[in-house]
Amino acid sequence: MSGNLSSPNYPFNYDNNLDCYYHITVPDGYIVKLTVLDFATEGEYSYFDYVQIYDGPDDQAFLLHKIGGTKVPIGFVYESTQRYMTIKFHTDFTGVRTGWLFNFIASTPNATAYFNATLGTISSPNYPSFYPNSFLQFYKIVVPETKIVLVEVMDFVTEPSYDYLRIIDGNNATDISHTLGLLSGNLTGNGSMPMTFYSTQSIVSLLFYTDHSVNRTGWTLNFRTAPKLN
Questions:
Q1: Distance CA 84, CA 131 (A)
Q2: What sequence ranges are listed for the domain CUB (predicted)?
């Protein structure tokens, strides 16, 4: 499944005072990969006219990126973590350009990394060297049903806001309503480490996402079982 999306009137100038929404849905088991083919909005680096890309079915989902101006590199790729992606295009009352053209495809995510053990260590790719850009990985910790999972994050340094680790209580890594922690930025540098999270069940899911630019040394965490609370 694939297709193109464009701003109104593209490749001619779009109108002022727009708020346009585009909703992409791909089949179960796939994610959305969005590639910038052309981009020009008002200003050079400005956000007077801009595109917001959301990881989910509407604009209440996690904001993956906000882009605007004429310096957005062609070929940049944005990936959802689920089968939905929402794009919002906003223009103000003055100044127009030719707009933008995106291509989207249904893409297969990396295979989930399973950890069926009572204790262990998980780290970002290449840790303690820099992790890759444009990376999406799911991890799953599974312990005996009579136990819960204790996760202790020992070191954490990512690009603030855009590269993150989400820790989910349960089997569904995209169910943000069961988020135990959403970590991003230099948490080691600000003295937040270590950080401890407890599940309420025998499975914890992790989702590590990085965008197309800027990388850091990443993260490492330990996990072990703990008694279930009655």
A1: 25
A2: 1-107, 111-226
Which residues share a beta bridge with 173?
A: none
DSSP H or E stretch at residue 150: strand 147-157
CATH fold of the domain at 113-227: Jelly Rolls (2.60.120)
Using CA atoms, how far apart are residues 43 and 57, in angstroms rounded to an integer? 29
What pTM, to 2 d.p., does this model score?
Answer: 0.78
Question: What are phi and psi for residue 178, nearest 5 degrees?
Answer: -110, 30
The pairing of beta strand 62-68 with beta strand 99-107: unpaired
Rounded to a whole number of angstroms, the distance between the first and last alpha carbons of the chain is 47
Q: What is the pLDDT along the chain (230 residues), one digit of tens a residue?
A: 899 999 999 999 999 999 999 999 999 989 999 999 999 999 877 789 999 999 999 999 989 889 999 988 898 889 999 999 999 999 999 999 999 999 999 999 888 999 999 999 999 999 999 999 989 999 999 999 999 999 999 999 999 999 999 999 999 888 888 999 999 999 999 999 999 999 999 999 999 999 888 999 999 999 999 998 76
Task: Classify domain 2-107 at the CATH topology level.
Answer: Jelly Rolls (2.60.120)
**CATH 2.60.120.290 boundaries in the chain:** 2-107, 113-227
Identify the CA nearest to 149 among candidates 195, 112, 222, 203: 203
Dist CA 51 CA 20 (whole Å): 9
